[in-house]
């Protein structure tokens, strides 16, 4: 059974949803109830998901559950799909996410089973291991660390001083540097001049075997999917990985690399220091990105890029020599 890091408040009826948001219903009646708000990949009967106007989709999909969308998307979908048609999808998702989900209360965390700690562990007396956590064998956890409720830490892993782990599943042989934060809510919200509305994040952080995280790094948990770091991927100090990012195996990211939300990165990718990668991009396998580059569009596999915006390395160098030599 996979660990749970949030409280699902469903089922939520259509009438309650209509009380919270202005919407029009299509192929839905007043008696319908929903169990969860989720992403499209996990949408099933009894669930709600959402489509932004900029997303690529197949109009023949989404026969299960209901979709939140605008009128412009509604006109492109099959008529038999159940829809909640709204003026602003992001605003609606921010409101409904906080109706369907909430954080665990302190009393609920206290009611969980005591943490399970494997043999031959070296855990500082000043570290906090919350209820429900599972710590493998030969794990070392330094001074001032916090391992949140229901987190899993695999065998032979090391968490250095003052790091905070929450909403995370960590495999074996993972090394996490000091003052690092993993699993906090990502930077996702609806912008409102009166009061910004945060989107409740129900995703997790998953670190696969052999991952190495430097000092002072942050890795946000996913919103409605997981943030995943592949095996043997290494991060230098001061890196930031945003929500829903998926990174492949054997990658190397130098100091101060930042990767924005929902970007997908392949295997064997390398970035130089202070690289910035925009959100919702796809970076192919074996890509090399020079230091201080700004990546604003997809990069095909086996490419080498540099500059801002990042372009082919040899094209950039040719232009640089022409202008500055």
In a few lines, what is going on in this structure?
This protein has 325 residues and is α/β, with parallel strands linked by helices. 12% of the residues lie in helices and 28% in strands.
Structural class assignment: alpha/beta
Rg on CA atoms, Å: 22 Å
Number of separate structural domains: 2
**Shape from CA axes?**
flat
Q: So what's the CATH class of the largest domain?
A: Mainly Beta
CATH superfamily of the largest domain: Hexapeptide repeat proteins
Strand content: 25-35%
Major sheet: arrangement of strands: 11-14-17-20-25-28-31-34-37-39-40
Q: What is the β-strand count?
A: 40
Q: Percent helix among the residues? A: 10-25%
Q: Give the termini distance in whole angstroms.
A: 62 Å
Under the CATH scheme, which architecture of the largest domain would be assigned? Answer: 3 Solenoid
Q: Helical element count?
A: 5
Low-confidence stretches: none
Largest sheet, strands/sense/barrel: 11 strands, mixed
Determine the CATH topology of the largest domain.
Answer: UDP N-Acetylglucosamine Acyltransferase, domain 1
* Average of per-residue pLDDT values: 93
Layout of strands and helices, then pairs:
Layout (H helix, E strand, L loop, with lengths): L6 E2 L3 E2 H7 L3 E3 L6 E2 L1 E2 L9 E4 L15 E4 L1 H4 L7 E4 L3 H12 E2 L3 H5 L5 E2 L4 E2 L4 E2 L4 E2 L4 E2 L4 E2 L4 E2 L4 E2 L4 E2 L2 E3 L4 E2 L4 E2 L6 E2 L6 E2 L6 E3 L4 E2 L4 E2 L7 E3 L4 E2 L4 E2 L4 E2 L4 E2 L4 E2 L4 E2 L4 E2 L4 E2 L4 E2 L4 E2 L4 E2 L8 E3 L4 E2 H12 L1
Parallel strand pairs: 5-6, 6-7, 7-8, 10-13, 11-14, 12-15, 13-16, 14-17, 15-18, 16-19, 17-20, 18-21, 19-24, 20-25, 21-26, 24-27, 25-28, 26-29, 27-30, 28-31, 29-32, 30-33, 31-34, 32-35, 33-36, 34-37, 35-38, 37-39
Antiparallel strand pairs: 1-9, 2-4, 3-8, 22-23, 39-40
């Amino acid at each position: 059974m996979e660990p749970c890091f949030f409280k699902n408040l469903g089922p939520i009826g259509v009438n309650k949803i209509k009380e919270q948001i202005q919407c029009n219903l299509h192929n839905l009646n007043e008696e319908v109830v929903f169990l969860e708000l989720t992403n499209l990949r996990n949408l099933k009967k009894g669930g709600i998901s959402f489509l932004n106007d900029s997303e690529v989709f197949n109009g023949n999909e989404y026969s299960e559950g209901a979709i939140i969308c605008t009128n412009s998307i509604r006109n492109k979908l099959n008529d038999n799909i159940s829809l909640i048609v709204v003026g602003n999808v992001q605003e609606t998702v921010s409101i409904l996410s906080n109706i369907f989900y909430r954080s665990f209360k302190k009393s609920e965390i206290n009611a969980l089973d005591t943490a399970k700690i494997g043999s031959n562990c070296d855990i500082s007396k000043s570290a906090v291991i919350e209820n429900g956590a599972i710590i493998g064998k030969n794990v070392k956890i330094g001074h001032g660390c916090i391992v949140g409720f229901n987190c899993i830490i695999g065998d032979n892993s090391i968490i250095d001083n003052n790091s905070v782990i929450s909403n995370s599943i960590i495999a074996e042989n993972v090394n996490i540097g000091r003052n690092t934060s993993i699993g906090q809510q990502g930077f996702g919200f609806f912008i409102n001049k009166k009061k910004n509305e945060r989107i409740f994040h129900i995703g997790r952080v998953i670190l696969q075997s052999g991952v190495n995280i430097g000092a002072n790094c942050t890795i946000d948990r996913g919103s409605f999917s997981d943030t995943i770091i592949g095996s043997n991927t290494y991060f230098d100090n001061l890196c930031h990985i945003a929500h829903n990012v998926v990174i492949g195996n054997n990658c190397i990211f130098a100091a101060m690399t930042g990767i924005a939300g929902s970007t997908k990165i392949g295997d064997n990718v390398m970035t130089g220091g202070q690289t910035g990668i925009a959100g919702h991009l796809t970076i192919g396998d074996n890509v090399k990105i020079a230091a201080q580059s700004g990546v604003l569009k997809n990069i095909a596999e086996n490419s080498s890029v540099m500059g801002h915006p990042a372009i082919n390395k040899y094209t950039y160098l040719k232009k640089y020599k022409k202008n500055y030599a």
